[in-house]
Amino acid sequence: MMDWHLPAVSSSASAHHISRDLFVLTYGALVAQMCKDYDNDEEINKYLDAMGYNIGVRLIEDFLANSGIKKCRSYSETVDIIAKVAFKMYLGITPSTIGGNDGGNEFSLILDKNPLVDFVEELPTGRPSLSYCNILSGVLRGALEMVHLPADVNFVQDRLKGDDVTEIGITFLRKNDDKKSRRNK
């Protein structure tokens, strides 16, 4: 007979922690199986992105219902909410943000810790162009699209590929309309 003890923080915090760990382990097994099934890294990257997109489309409802976040007034505020609230809620981390270009529509999330690679030391042999965590790009893209903020999301740097940091780039595809934003205040 096994006796399971959950951390005493709160029942919902325990459930999220267990779910996150289960997701990380399951995700690693999924990527490993895909590496066996597909020869082309680009196919795997596209599949992971599509899978993430479908998750993001559904996850945004849970996020909006449970976070209490209201409408963001700028792209930089949106990226701040993604980093400080969404990543904390679902992955237990808070990436730092680097903002914008002259147009104010390009941002980066810098992940000091990436839970998806907790059990991964390096990319599988012979898979140099595999974007192991590409599911995150899809999740962000899908969630942003559902709140009418289409964006291009991709990995700029990846520690698994020998980079110093893991960086996710977000480029909002619509020009921010400052006049409209000011009217809604």
SSE blueprint and pairings:
Layout: H1 11-37, H2 41-67, H3 75-91, E1 96-99, E2 106-111, H4 134-146, E3 151-157, E4 166-172, H5 178-183
Antiparallel strand pairs: 1-2, 2-4, 3-4
Helix pairs in contact: 2-4
Entry keywords:
globular, about 15% strand, disordered C terminus, Muramoyl-pentapeptide Carboxypeptidase, domain 2, 4-stranded antiparallel beta sheet, about 180 residues, disordered N terminus, alpha+beta
Describe this structure in words.
The chain is of the alpha+beta class and 185 residues long. The protein has a single domain, classed as 2-Layer Sandwich (Muramoyl-pentapeptide Carboxypeptidase, domain 2), CATH 3.30.1380. The chain is built from five helices and four strands, in the order αααββαββα. Strand 1 (96-99) and strand 2 form a beta hairpin. Helix 2 (41-67) crosses helix 4 (134-146). It is found in: Endoplasmic reticulum; Golgi apparatus, cis-Golgi network. It comes from Pyxicephalus adspersus (African bullfrog). Keywords: Endoplasmic reticulum, ER-Golgi transport, Golgi apparatus, Lipoprotein, Palmitate, Transport. One of its GO terms (cellular component) is Golgi apparatus.
